[in-house]
């Protein structure tokens, strides 16, 4: 196996996990082809035959080896989160957490820990679209000096169910229906909403799932959450409760639903490509790690249960402290070896981090190892390079399929005298893991605490916290999803649940579905829901209460960071005769802000500019579409403008960008291209610096002003208010 050459002074080599992966990394550059036994291969074109037209010989070990390996290439995909994309990176601590935890990687300011991150959708298969309306996984493996710590979170801070016992049910309900395996990567079907309408505890999560959070613009622009309440334990054995957050430095942004559906067809790898290309270009995705810390004594001070994973702690009640930064700076060398074989487990913790009795968390502690056993084929999956810790492993576990480690000596038990008692157990002071000694004195029961029965107050809090455009998107999302449900009774049941969150929301969805708005009497009726066989429905009804907060700013994407266009993609529509100076000036203004401008021409090849310079088209109108860009610029140049104005694809490009609320800028002499669109028919023919056209439409004869206004407008992400009046049928 040829080792990949590493420059000893390179950044790659300073990452301990990259160094740890090196002995397992192969690079065939300049090498001869061999069998898996290392025998050089002379002919990789033909099998061995009895005569050139005769049968293949059994003896052909080269053919047999090649074919057998190929026949066994596939492994089972993950039961959930099958579709994912990974990246390597570094976590750097800003602020020591020593007061709260003895976790080594959270002790010293400036300390760096290598990480591998996998983002995913939940419901779809491995080859499904990135743009499904779905939860996104955000799983981080920290390779710490005390062993691996996995923070296996999502981009939503709550979950569908309160008890892991219901996980197979919610997953069966959302996956394609078992009789006909439809639909793929979509929750818009009967079985999902049948289950949800019978599970009021899902209501809060459903609000998140029907919000724009479920259709992120990029993995770089979404939050992450550990969801459960965990524990930090310090070296005095004192415990604090902790919630983990990831806050993207580019803010939290989404695409429009119509855009998502189109991207799904035109580039189902959209998020994967965005992550890959950003890292290749050095525009590294960055997220700050936030913690909400709650002293043990405050456990019961909230109007919800800290152990209930359908609840979040509003940031107004417990602020999020940002304690470090995650930077993703290296793409994997091999998708299968790294992204597919990485095995996360919520039970991979290090001293200083511990669990709580959240019943969802407790059940997850079983499921993750169990699933790797079938998916990765046996108990040695921790030896797969991407899963290995950067510290050595010493224990008495032995053998099993695909064992890699060669354990020396005759001893594989403890206690022993023949091995000098090795490997030793580590004292607490030596970093030995000890579970937090929480006192438990209880009856063994299959029950749920009544403190888990408030299913609507935080769903209301979430809805009330949304901006008007966000609320409108949620109404559309519910209407779309329930509109795809064929069983009318399920739609009706769901409307009753929505009415308990917000009557206006229920009324608007009911209108779109052509159904009656649930009456007050309907709303007051006990809910039909899942209960144990001997349970009385009245004992299981949700507690109806108002949220203690009216709204929480952190829950709305409208309040997110909007100060940068770093990593944004801007389309520049050009044709022969385009004003070269305008294009160059815009490209450099964008690049100074870390954004990427792409020239889109009617066809590939060279574009002759008005200044006789030749530009190279990055994309042609045939191979790309407005849905891949955050904004559009139309430069001047008489011939280019005349061509684009008459080109249906160029006009459609602009109309669609407008429909998806994107910022559009143009040189004043390109005004006629805008006037050829559906939205620009009434725009003035002449625009100067003093005549604003419309929000999000930037035309200005003062060039520096035009660029500045464009950059500021793009940093605002979208002009959602434009949706109030749907002018364009795109
Ligand atoms: Fe899970 C994968 C996140 C509840 C059982 N889960 C998986 C992944 C993420 C999450 C991000 C993909 C990891 C990767 O990229 O390889 N899961 C969550 C979150 C949950 C949650 C944030 C609720 C707070 N999960 C959950 C429950 C169970 C599971 C309640 C079962 C009791 N999850 C699994 C699994 C998976 C998984 C079946 C499939 C593949 C894998 O583990 O490695 O074990």
UniProtKB/TrEMBL annotation:
EC number(s) recorded for this UniProt protein: 1.11.1.6
Gene Ontology molecular function: catalase activity; heme binding; metal ion binding
Record field: catalytic activity: 2 H2O2 = O2 + 2 H2O
Domain of life: Bacteria
Residues of the active site: 81, 154
Cofactor(s) required for function per UniProt: heme
Residues bound to heme: 78, 118, 167, 364, 368, 375
Gene3D superfamilies in the cross-refs: 1.20.1370.20, 3.40.50.880, Catalase core domain
Keywords: Heme, Hydrogen peroxide, Iron, Metal-binding, Oxidoreductase, Peroxidase
Domain Catalase core: 34-422
A Pfam family it matches: Catalase-rel
Protein name as catalogued: Catalase
Organism whose genome encodes this protein: Pseudobacter ginsenosidimutans
